[in-house]
Amino acid sequence: MKNLLKPLSLALFVAATLLMQNACNRTSPSSNPPTQTAHTQTSPPSDTIPAIGPSSHFCKAIGGKNDDEGNSLIQTSDGSYAIAGTTKSFGAGERDVYVVKLDANGNLQWTKTIGGKEDDKGYSLIQTSDGGYAIAGVTKSFGAGERDVYVVKLDAKGNLQWTKTIGGPKDDWGLSLIQTSDGGYAIAGSTESFGAGGKDVYVIKLDRNGDACCAVSQTSQVGSGGRLGSPTSSIGSRGTLTSPTSRISSGGTLTNQCP
Known about the structure:
The protein is mostly beta strands. The protein is built from 1 helix and 15 strands. The chain has one helix at 2-27; strands spanning 61-63, 68-75, 81-87, 96-102, 108-115, 120-127, 133-139, 148-154, 160-166, 172-179, 185-191, 200-206, 215-217, 221-223, 227-229.
């Protein structure tokens, strides 16, 4: 019996010794710790940190001491903003076309005024395929009559490239402008000089240089000006929505101004 206990006691001693060594290994730091793997990182990789984007909201006022209006707004290809309208505070005459460029956070980058001695207004603004801008409006300073359609082309920095006037002896307006697939422009507005009587819809197609059978180049004066402020504004909504009964018919007389 004693002979059997001796090997058993030895085996228990060896097992207890191994358990103690393992416990020491768990509580004592190793002189050569294992290499840390990627999945143990606690900080996100730098490429997953979101970038700080443009401001999600702002309220700005741009202008001078007299009446200044914004009639058309676009977001440009770089995420900033451009506005076209009219200014009485700056420019060459009574009112001038007013173009304002802001960055994505609403900070003023540049302003331009284009016009002559009388009233000139911008109603529609687009960014063109070359990165510049085109504006359609109305001019009393230039043209063939009391008011003419006014088309202005600027480069990406707001420098004047060309202006055109289209119209006849009475009040003619350009109210909407697009760039067409051939690189030219199409304008819709109103005419009193041509058509069936009173005011007629006026549609004009220009080539990429602003030329057409009815367009005349004009010399315009260009200036710059504007002060940017951030006023405290209150914003609300109100109004009544109605669904009136409408009558629809077809008709119209097409006249061609071109020879």
